[in-house]
Amino acid sequence: MRRMTIAALALIGVFVALYLTMYKMGVIGHLACGFGSCERVNTSKWAIFAGAPVAAWGLGFYVATLVVAIAGTSPSLVHRREISYLLAAMSGVGVAFSAWLTYLELYVIDAICRYCVMSAVIVTAIFIVSIADVAMQPRVQPRVQPEQLPE
Q: What 8-state DSSP symbol labels residue 80?
């Protein structure tokens, strides 16, 4: 259930990041931003990271998270702690990146984008659910080899 929750949150994140990516790539003319300064944030020099739009990085993150979360619901992977750790690590990086972007919005760009705030909330929720998933996974007891059994 937790991984399906992560998948649902990631799907919402895909739509938010896709909308911003489409704007940044010129597919849509302007952002529908009832409050805040979405266009100011998304046209700033900080809207590009490592040669690609920040929104595209977010889109990639959300798609990867969606794929891992859905794969993690398969019967062969549902009890694998590695999937839980991977989702927690991925979302931890997402939270850190989102915190840096929020800092830039507040103290450097001096403008807030409501879609960026929505993305920050989504990635934080994914992180919280991922940590719960790690905590709730059963601990696997190491197998004892027959030669290690007491006589």
A: -
Phi, psi dihedral angles at 36 (to 5 degrees): 90, -170
Closest CA relative to residue 53, chosen from 101, 87, 86: 101
Domain spans of the chain, in order of start: 2-29+36-137
Structure tokens belonging to residue 103: 């800092």
User: Counting Cβ atoms within 10 Å, is residue 35 exposed (0-12), middle (13-18) or buried (19+)?
Assistant: exposed
Task: For the chain, give the number of residues.
Answer: 151
Reference 20, options 118, 138, 132; nearest CA is 118
Which pair of tokens denotes residue 117?
């705030």
CA dist., res. 142 & res. 151, Å (int): 19
Backbone angles phi, psi at 37, to 5 degrees: -130, 65
Nearest-10 crossing angle of helices 81-103, 2-24 = 40
Q: Is the pTM of this model over 0.70?
A: yes
For the chain, the average pLDDT equals 88
Tell me the per-residue pLDDT of 132-150, one tens digit each, with 9 for 90 and over: 999 887 776 555 555 655 6
Instruction: Provide the CATH topology of domain 2-29+36-137.
Output: de novo design (two linked rop proteins) (1.20.1440)
HSE at residue 114, side-chain half, CA atoms within 13 A, is 6
